[in-house]
Amino acid sequence: MAGKPAQPNDNGARKDFMEPEDYFMAAAVLSARRSRDPSTQVGACIVNQDKKVVAVGYNKMPNGCEDHMPWSRSKGEDAAAAVWANGGDLTVATAAKVAAAAAETKLDTKYIYVCHAVLNAIMDKNSADVKGCSIYVTLFPSNECAKLIIEAVISVSRYERSRLSL
């Protein structure tokens, strides 16, 4: 018989299996793929103390709304991103232009319509209690999502990447 002989405590179980934390984050990543947002796909997975998935969510338009809503980012946000890409030289005049562009296009952006992944997951929990659960999110939660996590008494929050990496 070829191969390495079994060690006394080796029961032959696989050693290259996926750890639960990796599995739950992978579920959040897979959920994010359901998002139709062309620029930011976010997923969330809520897990109870028994390591069972309670709910998953992704960023999407509210139920009953069509996905042809405006998915674009604001002109102000695009202008701000361009400033930071060019070394972050933000003058008072440039800041005023960015703010004006953001104000004029607010209704033409996704931000006032889209439901974040954390909100979607908490609302999707059916009858399950999320108190004491853990949540795995592909992007650091927004301030509104952080408030939802606290209000839902979700005890552990893990995220894959920060908003600064966008």
TrEMBL record:
Residues 19-166 form the CMP/dCMP-type deaminase domain. InterPro entries: CMP_dCMP_dom, Cytidine_deaminase-like, dCMP_deaminase, dCMP_deaminase-rel. Zn(2+) binds at residues 116, 145. Its EC number is 3.5.4.12. SUPFAM superfamilies: Cytidine deaminase-like. GO terms for cellular component: cytoplasm. Its cofactor is Zn(2+). Keywords: Hydrolase, Metal-binding, Nucleotide biosynthesis, Zinc. It comes from the Eukaryota. Pfam families: dCMP_cyt_deam_1. One of its GO terms (molecular function) is dCMP deaminase activity. One of its GO terms (biological process) is pyrimidine nucleotide metabolic process. It is an enzyme of class 3 (hydrolase). This is dCMP deaminase. It comes from Pogonophryne albipinna. The lineage of its organism: Eukaryota, Metazoa, Chordata, Craniata, Vertebrata.
